[in-house]
Structures are given as C-alpha cells and as structure tokens.
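User: two proteins, same treatment. go.

Assistant:
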Amino acid sequence: SAASPEPDVFALVVQDASNSERPELLRRIPAGARRLLDAGCGSGATSAALKRRDGRLYVTGLEIDPRAAARAAGRLDRVIVGDAAPLLAALAAAGERFDAFLMGDVLEHTADPVALLAAARAASEPGATLVASVPNVAHLSIVRDLLLGRFDPAPAGLEDAGHLRWFTRGFLA
C-alpha cells in the first residue's frame, strides 16, 4: 500500500530582535547624553551602537532574561538582571541619575508601565530624554488578521504572546 503523505510541517524560528540595532531609536538619543538607562536592554545591540557612536556614554542595562543579560554584559558598562520597574526605583533611591532612557518595546511587557515611567522620572537628570517605542495595534497586519477573525499570539512581533497591554497615542501622552 502507498504511504499516505505527511502533513506539511512548518517551523518558526524566532531570532533575538535585541541582537539587532534599532536605527529609528538610535537617532532619537541626544548625541550629548552621558548616562543612559536601557530598560529591557535584551542583548544590548542598540545601546552598544550608541556607545560606539560616543565612547563617553555610560550605559546601564536592565534585563529580565538572564541569557539576554549575559549577552548584553559583554557590550554595555553594567547590566542588572531583574524586573525593570523595581530595579530602576532602587537605582533612583540610591541617588543614581540618568540623562537618557531607552525603552524599546518594553512598556507593553510590564505589569505596571506607569511605575516604570515614574521610576525613570525619579532617576532623571533635569532635561533628560526618554525614547520609548510600543507596538502599533492599528498596524495593517493586525487589522487584516482581525478582519479574518484571527489574533494569534506569536513568540515575537506585533502579536507577541508576552504583551500584557496595548497603548494608544492618547494614553502615552
């Protein structure tokens, strides 16, 4: 008897997005920044690119994933493993101050994004810069999926299963 064909099998390989520089974020960090706090630094590629741009920049990375933090430790000046909001609050309480903050696709993963932002404010030098990005829930790919009756969590991207919330422009303001 003829063997029945096997069903198609697909594999999804998710690469560490934090291992790639984010030029759209890089260009928003002021060239004169001296102390950067990268909350959710991942593997640290974006902050490492900032350090290459200006060797005087001191970068502290906060990362909850120990494996990503280990990769970032070889690129950044200091990496602390754990939840960003309490870590940043502790740094602020210890008197540490930063003139730039990077939160690239982090706020949507936090249980309390307002606490993280408040901790950043407490650790801010006067005139500090905050650069944050969040996924666009109105992106055409999500709208298309919704129109097709789908919203399938994925390991990364716009429909990342780790997203705890979505933001609107009004909420961010």
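Protein 2:
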Amino acid sequence: MFPDLIDTVPLRRAIDDGLTWVVRHWGGALEAAASPLLMLLNAIQRGLVATPWWLMILAAMLIAWLATRNWKLPALVAGALLFLGLFQLWEDAMATTALMIAATLTAILLAIPTGIVMSRSARVRGLLSPVLDLMQTLPSFVYLIPTVMIFGPGKVPALLATIVYAAPPLVRLTDLGLRQTDPAVMEAARAFGTSPGQRLVGVQIPLALPTILAGINQTTMLALAMVVIAS
C-alpha cells in the first residue's frame, strides 16, 4: 500500500468540480462546434444505407480486385458482406463503415496540414512531438473517457475519439516525407525562382506522396481498429 503522505481529497474534488463546470457551461458550445462532424457522419451513413446492397458488394469487390489483381480477396469480401446481410447486420455494418470513413477523412484533413507545419518549423515539431508520443502511447479506450464526459454517449464521442487515435501516424509520416525531400531537388527548384508555396505543392508533396500514402494507410487501419471499440 502506498503511504498517505498528503491529503489529496481536496485536489481531487477540485478537479471533479472543474470538469463539472466545463460540462455545465461549455457543453452546449462544444456540441455546437462538433455538429459539422455529426452532419458529415450522418450524411455518409444515410448514403451508405440508401445504396443498394448489391451495388455496395460490387463496389467493395472492385476495390479489392484493383488492390490485389487477384480473385481471392474479392471473393472473400463478397462472402463477408453477404454474411452480414443474411444475419441482418447490414445497417449496423454501414453505420460502422460510415463512422470509419468520416473519422478517416477528418483525420486526413487535420493531419496533413499539421504535418506540413511541423516539417517547416522545428519549434512546432518540438512542441507537437511529445503530444504525438502521448497520443500513440495511451490505450485506445482512454480517448473515449473525456469525450463521453463532455458529450455523453453517442456518435460524436465515438467520432472524436477515433479521429484523435488515428491522426498521429499521418502527422508524423507527412512531416517525415516532406523533410526527407532531396536537398539537391529543392535547390534546383529555388534556382528556378519558385516560391515556398510552389516548392511545397510542386516538388515536396509529389516526392513525399508515397510516405504520405503510407500514413493514410496507417490512419485508416487505426480508425478501423478504434471504431469497433467506439461503436
């Protein structure tokens, strides 16, 4: 048993009271700020549910075939989706898919600009790196605790927790890919009189695209892993 060196009850009560105050006075504003994410999620979910099941299966099979150029994965995908439909799990599966798509898209929109800023500023990188380390260290379920406390059980906490959990790899890989651009190529671009924005869009991002796509792949996989817990 750890010894009771100091009385921490007043501090714990103060922390609880502070969180209660935030929920009471800022809960409505935070929910309003998160409403665009909820609208995006609901729109994606309605679109997936309204799409004919056979079209969804064909689209998933086509994506699987384009990814592998082999019939085995499309057949497995078709069998899995048919299994969901036969066991009356289609709408639940579409809700989970919508949550993953919305979280992945939002994470991409937030992570890539953040990675760009990190690649161009050592100070920002120094500030954000410990935060990203912490985000990747915490257990996935921990992300749900503050969001559920503020927003209550629902779609918004699941979406926010998934975004926070899935974004760090893409931030890091975007930063890494841009910083690893060949200095000789960058010097040649400067010699042609290009602006920093032109070098970023026309040189750095195309050269870093494989690394960025690897980050998007990692973000998608983490979103898929988290969305099951969040759902």
